[in-house]
Amino acid sequence: MHIQHGIRGKEAEVDRIFSEEQARLFGIPFLSYSCSVPDYAEKEGLGIEEAARILRYRALEREALRWQKESGKKTKIALAHHRDDQAETILYHLLRGAGFSGLAGMRAEMPICSGHFLDMQEYAEAGSLEEEAAIDSNNSNASKDSKDSKDSKDSKEEILESVFKRSVHNIMEQLSHYDVKTDIYLVWVHLFRAAKKEAKVIQLALDYHLEKIFVQAMQEFLEKYHGKSKGVSSYLHSFWSSAIVSVLLKWIKDGMKVPAEKIADLRLPFFKK
């Protein structure tokens, strides 16, 4: 389960795509949940970290109880806290004015209705789990700073590029079912509708300057349809592929407010010798 806290914007969306792709590769069910921690923190008069923890636990509990209801078995939620989290919790309780009974860190296990929260770090130290399994991206020291290591950034960008290529491939594959001479209206409608479904991925890809992948795919489509050009005439395919993709990307950047059918009605040509 991946939870977006509404704090890091597009960077967090890249993390979501990375997580979803990793889950897909390992055959693990993936669920994404979004919330606005800044809004909740302001409304309740809380700090960002405390508000994030409350909303995160709330989402985890809701999903755990859903699983529990469907399976008929008790569900446990495993959390990955480390020593710094414990120290912060104790300091927070102390500053808040807790008595001796309240001056404590997080418990290794606590109930959530009829399920349980488990602190994986406690279990790891007890030998029940490997240390590496007890650290997650929300609570590791490395993730405190949004500047991840170069290897991590490269890995995420590679995943985003892979996902974007797959999205573009799916769009272009469907495009081959139409005749760009006689079905130009349907071709544009399809492009806009298919792109709208992949809008989030496309927008992120633009932030990482990956639009050339789309342009290249469009050029290959035109060359397949019209035949591969050589010499000076090859610039025609380059021009039209860039122009077509530019129209599509402008529509997405503008928030997709204009109906796809209205732009398709312009019947912009896909190629002109």
Give the oligomer, counting copies of the same chain as homo and different chains as hetero: single chain
What's the N-to-C terminus distance? 51 Å
Strand-pairing-aware structural class: mainly alpha
String of helices and strands: EHEHHEHEEHHHHHHH
Give the radius of gyration: 25 Å
Proportion of β residues?
5-15%
* Main beta sheet strand tally, sense and closure: 3 strands, mixed
What is the element layout, followed by pairings?
Layout lengths: L1 E3 L5 H16 L6 E3 L2 H8 L3 H24 L4 E4 L3 H14 L12 E4 L2 E5 H6 L24 H26 L8 H14 L1 H9 L3 H16 L7 H20 L6 H5 L9
Parallel strand pairs: 1-2, 3-5
Antiparallel strand pairs: 4-5
Helix pairs in contact: 1-6, 2-3, 6-7, 6-8, 6-9, 9-10
Could you characterize what this model shows?
With 273 residues, the protein is mainly α. The chain contains 11 helices and 5 strands; from the N terminus they run E-H-E-H-H-E-H-E-E-H-H-H-H-H-H-H. It has a 3-stranded mixed beta sheet with strand order 3-5-4. A two-stranded parallel ribbon has the order 1-2. Helix 6 packs parallel to helix 9. The chain is elongated and about 75 Å long.
